[in-house]
Amino acid sequence: MGAGAVVTGVEHVEYLADAHGGSGARSVFLGGIITPTRRLALRWLRRQAHRLADALDPDPRTTHLPTRALLPAAPGAEHAPSQLRFWAADLAYAEEAADRLATGYPYCFTAREGPAWYRLTARPLFTTGRPSHFAWSSV
Question: Fewer CB near the last or first residue (10 Å), C or N of the chain?
Fold first, then answer.
């Protein structure tokens, strides 16, 4: 679907944003949200980027860490927390993501550190109508 493309039958668009982490063949769902606008989905992803970065790389002045819990990274090594913080603060990335979502395509950012990876994704959810209620059934 290119810029200016029209999706026939679509009456409503919401956005799914989610965060995953993993290493090798494993993947872990770290959180997700459905929002009414792409800007809200991207705002949620930026908050998740900061949350993950702070969890992976806490402030060294934090007093509740065990001795030697934080060690300096090797110069030039991949550092996922720095990548996540940089992505969250960069306005060019934000505009690129918003433009991609506006044309109907998903957006994905992946930060890596050694075999570990952290992925932030947003994608449009197209529906032909907004349901007025949910039908729940027990199987």
Answer: C
pLDDT band at 99; cut points 50, 70, 90: very high
Q: How many CB atoms lie within 10 A of CB 93?
A: 16
- For the chain, how are helix, strand and coil distributed in percent, rounded to 5? 30, 30, 40
Greater confidence (102 vs 1) lies with 102
Residue 42's pLDDT band (boundaries 50, 70, 90)? very high
What span, in angstroms and rounded, lies between the C-alpha atoms of 101 and 113? 27
Please compute the mean of the pLDDT values over residues 86-91 and round it to a whole number: 94
Residue the block writes with tokens 């109508």: 129
CB atoms within 10 A of CB 127: 12
Number of helices (H), then strands (E), belonging to the chain: the values are: 3, 4
The conformation of residue 4, written as its DSSP 8-state character, comes to T
DSSP string, 47-96: HHHHHHHHHHS--TT-TTSPTT---PPPTT---HHHHHHHHHH-HHHHHH
